[in-house]
Structure formats: structure tokens, C-alpha cells
Amino acid sequence: MTLRKRPIRHVLQWLIEGSRGGINRARIIDSLREDPKNANQLGLALNMEYRVVRHHLEVLEENGLITSMGEKYGKMYFLSTELEENISVYEEIWHKLRKKLKNKETRVKTE
To answer: For the whole model, what pTM was predicted?
Structure first.
């Protein structure tokens, strides 16, 4: 039985907008857009614990949004070709989530 691959828009909506940790995943993607990095470099750049970074990297890689090269601590992460080709979809979803978060912050401050 062959499983049909889900459209990248659905994957991004689920992993960025629809799940806990979506903000951290988006931050990782943004950082990898600048330069490839290993998990330790990402942790330092984003002020995130190494284990948290590793978890999100595994989720992103399992879902085809990033790829890796190398082994163990030297393993470097890159955006996948599919994500690079659909970066505008990612930007749209990430912008929408940031807007929601900003609106939520504003409501909390006024209450």
C-alpha cells in the first residue's frame, strides 16, 4: 500500500500553526534560512536547550522540511529542497501565526 504524500501547505499548517512548539520550529526554520547549522549552533543562536532543538529537528526532518548531512554532533541541518521551493507558503503561515500571537497579547494587556 502506498501512502499519498501530504501537500506541504498541510504539513506546515500542522507543524507551525497547529501544534505546540510551532513557534520554535518556525524559529529553527528561520535560522536555517540564514545558514546551515548543527543542533548546538541552533541552541546557542536561538537560546533554546539542546534537547528541545534536537526534538524539533527530528520532527522537521521526519516531515521533509529539513535535511541533514554528517553524523552525531557535527550533523548539519539544511532546508529541504521542497521547503525552499515553497518558502512563500511557509512565510504566509508564519506571518499568520505571528499576527494571531500579537492580537492575543494585545487582548491580554487590555483585559
So the answer is: 0.88
